[in-house]
Amino acid sequence: MSEKVNLLNFDCQGLCHYLQSLGESSFRGKQLFQWIHQAGVADVNLMTNISKTLRAKLLEYTCIDMPEVVYDNTASDGTRKWLLRLDDGNCIEAVYIPERTRGTLCVSSQVGCALNCSFCSTAKQGFARNLSVAEIISQVWVAVRSLSEEGGKHDHAVTNVVMMGMGEPLLNYNNVLTAMDIMKDDLAYGLAKRRVTLSTSGVAPGMLKLKQDSDVALALSLHAPNDELRNELVPINKKYPLKEIMQICREYFPKGSKRVVTMEYVMLEGINDSEQHAKQLAKLLANVPCKLNLIPFNSYPKALYQCSPMPVIEQFKTYLQHKGILTTIRKTRGQDIDAACGQLAGDFKDKTSRRRLLDARADRMLGQIAIETAAQ
Ligand code: SAH
């Protein structure tokens, strides 16, 4: 592994400070930032407005290191998936979903996940580690670059980013925040705040912190209308139950801002899709500014659940809409290349002890967030 400083770990301000620490003017940091993220240039020698002496210095002390693309495939519906191999051999996935008016990139925040949601295939792999800023933003860099290489029609192909790939983004708080800042920076990818979405399983302290620190959109993986069922499907609910999470969502965006939290609800046959569940859900969401996104469950080998039949999903939607809750059904994309929600599964190098470590690690991370939040 390189001892050099990876320039992809910096946001614009960080890069300016770093350049100053090398005895350069901070303006050079801005130029470098634009070259890397706006122009998509990862070779210092191609940065024409940077002097030869500075280039030599950069080559000596720094690198622009990205994960290697080991798989790049496009599904029949245009969904494209990249499998990226990290320095330590672990793999992560990023998925691009083109639609008529927008192109959404689904980005991973961790190698695996520690939260053990019972229906999610990423959970089955356990947790390996957090991704660095470089590893998170590289997913955007690679996607934007490879899509633009396809020809003119794909310029500005990535209009939205959702932190909905592998991992729980709020348990890799600082790196995710910096990476999202880079996504929104006009000198980089220039995405509007409403077009960058962080999805969480409900890490309450992280949600409170994000509310203070960032203006990105928020999605909550709700999946159940009562604590008993949610404890089973999303075990972190035992730590942060619905009452606490819903209160945070209620106050998340300022009144009058017209911004709402997106509630994600995966449709599991015979588990959370009855009329009774719809009733409970309507009640739970009645005074929470939100929209509801029903996600047809995507199956994978050894999955414990099945997707609710489409008529059941439609009925569920109709009921909630009649109760005044804006409800949509997520279109499943990229299934033929295992790129749909919950199918992301980078292979791990070390699979041996992960199950045992899982709970201990999750607890440690949660503890850390709690401490950081308390220190605010
Ligand atoms: N940990 C974060 C980020 C992952 S987002 C979170 O929980 O929000 C991925 C979204 O897809 C989540 O809403 C997740 O619950 C959902 N999901 C996971 N497995 C799925 C599956 N097999 N089918 C459909 N959706 C799934």
Question: How would you describe this structure in keywords?
Answer:
single chain, 376 residues, alpha/beta, 10-stranded mixed β-sheet, two-stranded parallel sheet, 18% strand, elongated, disordered C terminus, binds S-adenosyl-L-homocysteine
Structure description:
Helix content is 37%, strand content 18%. The chain has a 10-stranded mixed β-sheet, with helices on one face. Strands 1-2 form a two-stranded parallel sheet. A two-stranded antiparallel ribbon has the order 7-8. It is of the alpha/beta class. It is built from 12 helices and 14 strands. The radius of gyration is 21 Å and the shape is elongated. It has helices at 12-21, 26-38, 52-61, 121-124, 133-149, 173-184, 204-213, 227-233, 242-250, 275-285, 310-322, 354-375; strands spanning 5-6, 62-63, 68-74, 80-85, 91-98, 103-106, 110-112, 127-130, 160-163, 196-200, 217-221, 261-267, 290-296, 327-329. Helix 5 (133-149) packs parallel to helix 6. It binds S-adenosyl-L-homocysteine.
- Mean of all residue-level pLDDT scores: 89
Helix/strand-derived category reads alpha/beta
CA(first)-CA(last) distance: 35 Å
Give every kind of bound small molecule, once each. S-adenosyl-L-homocysteine
Uncertain segments of ≥5 residues (pLDDT<50)? 347-376
The backbone outline, from C-alpha atoms, is elongated
The largest pleated sheet is described as: 10 strands, mixed
Helix content: 25-40%
Side by side, the strands of the main sheet go: 3-4-5-6-9-10-11-12-13-14
Using only C-alpha atoms, the radius of gyration works out to 21 Å
β-strand percent reads 15-25%
Helix and strand sequence: EHHHEEEEEEHEHEHEHEHHEHEHEH
**Annotation field: number of helices:** 12
Number of strands: 14
